[in-house]
Amino acid sequence: MPFNQKLLAAAMAVALLIFIVETVRRRKLREEYAWLWVLIGGIILVLALWPALLQLITVRLGIELPINTVFFFGLMFMVFINLHFSVKISELTNQVKRLAQELSLTEEKDGSPREEEER
Questions:
Q1: What is the distance, to the nearest Å, from the Cα of residue 48 to the centroid of all Cα atoms in its chain?
Q2: For the chain, what is the domain count?
């Protein structure tokens, strides 16, 4: 890999790591997910600085080009992230439904007016 490409890939990986730390610091990204993104940024940095490792992984997996290996792992990462977020969204949807039902029962029991009736 030419030096310019190594430098660009390493700079992008470092920028990604800085962005991750900054979003966690500003509480826009929960620590629960930050470790995963730091891991991905670290892997990108290692592969940018040591391209022979990517070549070795490519040969071991029987893939023809290293870029195909990168795309394969990137695609698999996106599939797993989407699956994880789908599960989380389903859990949160069920939680919101349960909370709305509990609130409705509490209001009915207490005799307090609903928001729609107050308008």
A1: 21
A2: 2
